[in-house]
Design a protein that fits this description.
This protein has 694 residues and is of the alpha/beta class. The chain folds into 3 domains: 4-302, 4-Layer Sandwich (Nitrilase/N-carbamoyl-D-aminoacid amidohydrolase); 328-452 and 480-579, HUPs (Rossmann fold, 3-Layer(aba) Sandwich); 592-693. Strands 1, 2, 3, 4, 5, 8, 9, 10, 11, 12, 13, 14, 15 and 16 form a 14-stranded mixed sheet that branches. It has a 4-stranded parallel sheet with strand order 19-18-17-20, sandwiched between helices. The longest helix has 29 residues, at 475-503. The chain is globular, with a radius of gyration of 28 Å. GO terms for molecular function: ATP binding; glutaminase activity; NAD+ synthase (glutamine-hydrolyzing) activity. Residues 5-275 form the CN hydrolase domain. It comes from Dryoscopus gambensis. One of its GO terms (cellular component) is cytosol. Its EC number is 6.3.5.1.
Amino acid sequence: MGRAVKVATCALNQWALDFEGNLERIFRSIDIAKSKGARYRLGPELEICGYGCSDHYYESDTLLHSFQVLAKLLESPATQDIICDVGMPVLHRNVRYNCRVIFLNKKILLIRPKISLANGGNYRELRWFTPWSKARHVEEYFLPRIIQEVTGQETVPFGDAVLATKDTCLGAEICEELWAPNSPHIEMGLDGVEIFTNSSGSHHVLRKAHARVDLVNSATAKNGGIYILANQKGCDGDRLYYDGCAMISMNGETVAQGSQFSLDDVEVLVATLDLEDVRSYRAEISSRSLAASKVNPYPRVKVNFALSCPDDVAIPTCMPIQWRHHSPEEEISLGPACWLWDYLRRSKQAGFLLPLSGGIDSSATACIVYSMCHQVCLAVKNGNADVLADARRIVNDETYIPEDPREFCKRIFTTCYMASENSSQDTCNRAKLLAEQIGSYHINLNIDAAVKAVVGIFSVVTGQTPRFCVYGGSSRESLALQNVQARIRMVLAYLFAQLTLWARGMPGGLLVLGSANVDESLCGYLTKYDCSSADINPIGGISKTDLKNFIQYCIENFQLTALRSIMSAPPTAELEPLVDGQVAQTDETDMGMTYAELSVYGKLRKIAKAGPYSMFCKLISMWKEICTPSEVASKVKHFFRMYSVNRHKMTTLTPSYHAENYSPDDNRFDLRPFLYNTSWSWQFRCIDKQVNAL
């Protein structure tokens, strides 16, 4: 009858400008799709060159190499008898577009440019691409000679069209178009398109996956149809982790779910679906039929090919499944761990070094590395040859098999407790015990000699010796002495990262990990160029509240009992002198605000787009049970003073895993000045007037 179609989608760990590796992964996904009987294969957005090419899109080389890869795909026997849908940049009439190139049996069927470009948050597509603004319009695209020689075609259709096969009709969306209020699938569905495809470059944010799944399912709930989503996965060269979640949905229900986090470079989903289920679902929606009778038709590209087989009555079709979402704690355990693995293997380093203070933040970072070691061992156990080859190269042993996470951790992870005269024995013991439980190679050292040497240079030059407040010094002196300790730790971290393996008779160097959380970055509670300055930071986009919950998760799931005492201890920088052998300095006292308050400020500032006055107006309602308007005003003013005084620190912030939508990352997500008028005179005066009125 020709009603059961078999389609494939995938999640690929592509890497910006890695044309060789990207081509190999595309071929692998096509081979898997064909081996499972699929007649159509969908890949992620811009998969040929990798999504994160950024300003490399301006280079003609990127276009040239993309077409060279396309030629390899077109001429290969591997792509015969399956419709292949791949993503790449295309220059049409001297305008650069983000495109899908759909081909079959050495012939390009359609080049479909992206209509709605992603340009918020971390996305800057309008910088490099132009949206296709000619709805339902198709032009001739003149193929470059390298493609003409393979296909024998001089021109192909370019524009907003759909494909009409022998048995159904397919229409493409690209990433952002699913999220747009006027998504193309609405009109395409009314015009008889039965299969919608979406090629995405969608990155991980905590608690975001459900929104993507809901959008895909709702796309066909009202209008019927089959929706296929492909997505990139992994770290393709920057702060983002693309979290897969390839999926196939029909008539508002999920029928196939891909993994959100895994170390598999190639993951392919295949589903067999009955087109008659779509047709009968649509037939009983009278409002849809009325709207469909008035719709403007899409140009159709006829394809002499079927996605189904003539005799398919006995072929079983896929049934709806329940999507399983990870908890935020699981997301923190898995997402940054996969990102770290990609960064480690692609940077060709031999492991990580972490200054481990015995506090929550550095301990959470250590736990993420330990989780990464778990994922590596699990992947090898499941037969992942790529992960095994990478692990062997990293540890420089061609016969090595990572089986025990603690043993693997010992090989690739060095932790270092850098004590000073202001450090307590408690934090030293906590760091040592945690290192023992995760298996890291642990170093204890004392920085007092280096601190005294640096301060001594200052004293020789100026004749003055700065003192801490508790010894009669000023706050300026005390802060300077704290910063010297912090910055010396950064210098030592890099020294040990470069030479620890050399001292142990092993090859390679280590990547330095930072461990400042998103809340501390937001208010600037860190020393510029201290050991928060590192190569990468897996927790820099995660709040203190979420990190505490993650620590509890690690206690329960990894049996890391050392974390219990870390959880119960108040967060402290340990940069001021001890009082009677006990820590007197705490983070929240230093900041003048709690971490819980900081999360609220961060979400209002970034997500709610609130300046000082708007934030005050929102908080007098939110906190009316616990604060007077005057107290709210004082808190808001203090936050904005701290934020603006310290904003300059964001310009040197260590590249961090992006996990939170209120991240203050100055690179491209949170674009603000770094020199403010920190008095906020006009704004604070508006707050004062409102307080008086209240």
